[in-house]
Amino acid sequence: MNDQITRRRFLGGLLAAAGSSAAPFALNLAAVGNAAAATATDYKALVCLFMTGGNDHYNTLLATDPESWREYLRLRDTHDARSIALPAVGAAKGVLPITPKTAQPGRSFALHPQLTGLKALFDVGRAAAVANVGPLIVPTTRAQYLGRAVPLPPKLFSHNDQQAVWQASRPEGARIGWGGRMADMLRSSNGNSSFACVSTTGNAVYLNGQYVRQYQIAADGELAKIDGLNGNVYAGTAPLRAIVTGRTAGMLGSAYADIVDRAIDLEATLSSALVPGGAGGVPAPPPFIVPSTGASAVNPLALQLQTVARMIASRDKLGMKRQVFFVNLGTFDTHDNQKVRQGDMLARLSHALIYFDSVMAGLVGTDMRKQVTTFTASDFGRSLTSNGDGTDHGWGSHHFVVGGAVAGANVYGTMPPIGLGHASDVGQGALLPNFSVEQYGATLAKWFGLSAAQTLEAFPNLSNFTQRDLGFMTA
Description:
Layout: H1 2-17, E1 44-52, E2 61-63, H2 66-76, E3 96-98, E4 109-111, H3 116-123, E5 127-134, H4 142-146, H5 159-168, H6 178-185, E6 197-199, E7 215-216, H7 240-244, H8 251-273, E8 288-289, E9 296-297, H9 300-313, H10 315-318, E10 322-330, H11 338-361, E11 372-378, E12 397-402, E13 411-412, E14 435-436, H12 437-448, H13 452-458
Parallel strand pairs: 1-10, 1-11, 5-13, 5-14, 6-7, 6-10
Antiparallel strand pairs: 2-4, 3-4, 5-12, 8-9, 11-12
Helix pairs in contact: 3-11, 6-13, 9-11
C-alpha cells in the first residue's frame, strides 16, 4: 500500500511538471482517503473565459454620468491620435448605454462600442457585470494597503503570478486551482471524471485538482492520436501499442507507460462520443469581422467555445453531470496602441459570447442556457491614467457572468469613482478590489452545487470574508 500511494503521488507530480501530460490528455488519479464528495443528478457546466494580459476595465464597463465622464476624459483624452478615450454615448461609434435593474444614484453606465453582443445579452437578462473584483487575502482598505498593515496577495502587478493567484489563490508555481478543487468535490457525480476539467488552450492551473487532472483538447476540437496502434511496426515485432506502452525498469518508465496507455484509452472514448462540429452537430461560428481592418477572420475564442459546446453535447455518452472548462483570449497587455488592440479583442469576446449563447439555446435540440454559466477573469485591471498610447498594470477589474441562470441586467457591487486619490485608488487609478476572487468564485460554486463547507475548502481565503454570495446567480 505504501508503494502504491508513493507511486500515485509521483504520477501526480509528473503530470503537473509536464503540464498535466506529455500527450494532450490527463491522468485522473483515484481518490486517496475519505475525501468528501457531493453527488449531482442534474447537469451544470462552468466556463472560465480568461482574458490574458490584463484587460483594461475602464474602457470595458464605463461610468458615463457627467462627473465621471469629465474625469475620464481629463485623464484619458490626450487630444491627438494617441488618445485612449472612447467616444461618448450617442457619438459615432460611441459607447453603448446599459440600464441596470438596480440603480446606483447619480451614476450611469455603458459598454465598449465593440461589445454589441454582450449588451444584447445584458439587456435580455442573461448577462451581468460584477464591479471591481480582484485577489484579496482579507478585506483591505487603502490605508492598510499603503501601510502594509494586512496580508496582501503575493507579487501584485506581475502577469504570471496574478494569473496563478486568480486561478489558484497562489503565485506562479501553484499546482491546484479552484476549478479543479470544485471538480474534486463533485467527482462522484461523474461517470468518467477524466473529462470533468477540460482546457481548450493548453495547461491551466485553474483546472488541476488533488484527484482530478485536466483533459486538454485542441481549440478546434481535433483529437490527437497515434495511428496504426494495432499494427506491427515491421514484420515479426509486437503491435505498436505494446511498444509505446511497454514498461521499462524504474518508476519513471512505468509512469510514462501509464500516461500513454491512459491517453490512448481516453482518445478512443472521446472519439466515439464527441458530437461533431458543423452539419448534424454543433454549428460553426459565423464570420467574424475585425473592426480595425474590416477583414473577415476566424475568431479563435469562438472556435474554443464550439469545442466546449461539442463536449457538453456529449455529456450523456461520457457520463458527465458536472464539468469545468477553461478557454482563453489574449493578449490584453495594452501598454500601447490600446484603442485599436483592445477594440479588436473585445469584438472577439462579444462575437464569441453571442455565438455560444445561440448554440446553448438549442444544443442538439436542448436549451442548455440555464445549465451553463460563462464568467470572465483576467490577470488584473489597468491604470486609469494614460501612458500616452495605452495603460499600465492595475489590480481590481470589472467582470461579466453570462448564462440563463445569471440574475442578469445588473451591475453587482458599487462602481468606484472615476478619478485619483479616492478610497479605492492605490496609484494612477489602479483599483483596490471591492470583491475578492474568492467571493466571486464562491458565488459560482454555490450555484454549481458545492455546500457551504465545501466552498470554504475550495477557496482558502473565503473564511476571511463575511459576504460569500454576491447574488448574481439565481437559486
